[in-house]
Amino acid sequence: MGMQKKDVDVVVIGSGPNGLAAAIRLQQQGLSVLIIEGKKTIGGGLRSAELTLPGFTHDICSAIHPMAAASPFFNTLPLHQYGLEFIRPTIAAAHPFDGGKAAVLTSSIKEAASLLGDDEKAYLKLVEPIVKDWPLLVNELLAPLHFPNHPLAMMAFGLKALPSALHLSKKFVTKEARGLWAGMAAHSIQPLSNLATSAIALVLMAAGHTAGWPVPKGGSQQVANSLAAYFISIGGNIETDFYVTSLADIPSSNAVLFDITPRQLLQIAGHRFSSLYKWQLERYRYGMGVFKIDFALDGPIPFIAKECNKAGTIHLGNTLEEIAHTEQETADGRHPENPFVLLAQPSVFDASRAPEGKHTAWAYSHVPNGSTEDRTSAIEKQIERFAPGFRERILAKHTMNTTQLEAYNPNYIGGDINGGIIDIGQLFTRPALRYSPYRTSTRGLYICSSSTPPGGGVHGMCGYHAAQRVLKDIFPKHLNLKPVNNT
Ligand SMILES: Cc1cc2nc3c(=O)[nH]c(=O)nc-3n(C[C@H](O)[C@H](O)[C@H](O)COP(=O)(O)OP(=O)(O)OC[C@H]3O[C@@H](n4cnc5c(N)ncnc54)[C@H](O)[C@@H]3O)c2cc1C
Q: What's the gap in Å between 472 CA and the centre of ligand 1?
């Protein structure tokens, strides 16, 4: 059956990193692609804005970009020519403890290991093989479930990644190594006793020792702007300020890709799906939310541990035991007094973010899904614990609870920033157990958001792999064309 003439070949709904990546991949293969974005500006989790005071640029959602820097697809694109410049902080991440010491993730694995004293060998044994295999692993890991091209490297990784972070922490004896490990694993937004919470810690550490944990010059918006500028340069079209509520609203096309989560997909297209697929999407699970604060500061954060002044990201939670306890409490629906806080200080490395001498800070802690509790004072107290005098430097702040986050971006259901929990049950089978996770039960309708593999974070690989599926299913003649303008 030949294809009918449509307004465009493909419509992508949503301009987050995955929507942009999918659209670029399809446009590169000679198709006509239209992105429709509900908000006035593009970018989804990549927007930056003057949230507090004039001259202070804050990253509303993502700030630190280990996954974008590691992304096999983004790395094929000439984004630098379209304004993207990554700045790599001297230290990727620092983890201060009570008493003034800090553990650090430096770019050199040898240096990071040597700073861990009695855990030097254990750290090298755990992380070094992954760093060595990283060029092979990154393509395997940032992909849907498949038979690996490098089975040995994947098996070695899997044996370390599958256990819980608490289990694997037994490899370390020092407070420093255990704390650093827990801070990395807490990025999984799950109790550290959950299976596979080691995976995210290992990936973030390997990323730190390879492409780094950079900040984009000018703010995360620059990642979206450079992707969009490249997309437009190869003939793509973007329409903003058009929130899609029904398939009847959009131009006709041979394929529609949704950069949204299952709950919204059900609302927009549920009537088109099989009852089995609908049943699967209805059972899709969302995880903990976040409470986010952006600060405008009168000066740098006065950390006691000097390493923190050179770090782009700081994990504030003290010991592994404390972090494991507070993350468990949060998962159980409570608001711990001393939450684990993820903090970034982009202006220390990028002077364009704040007026001269002034600074920005970005911080969040996990909260129960749907929480509306104001966590400002708990988060500030945790920063103050490792940086006494912090509060006196605050010029202005802007906060978002989970309801406000979801109002800002409907993909953050109950404040879940990963488009659904990434636990062992939803790691590869997100959003549903199917031959291809990107296909819905209706031909021509696809999902490409972080609710598909490989999940949350700014890497665009959900979008890339969804686009590959669309090419194979709907436009096979375009699959192996030489991509346009791909320098
Ligand atoms: C506070 C916070 C901190 C984070 N920190 C980091 C970090 O430091 N590093 C990192 O890598 N990741 C981070 N993330 C996660 C990251 O932002 C997301 O994983 C990523 O943006 C997901 O990309 P996406 O393309 O799947 O969806 P999104 O970025 O959510 O984009 C979806 C887009 O679709 C649009 N949309 C939704 N529904 C409709 C509709 N019906 N019609 C039209 N448009 C619609 C939305 O407006 C949005 O623009 C953070 C997220 C948050 C909230």
A: 26
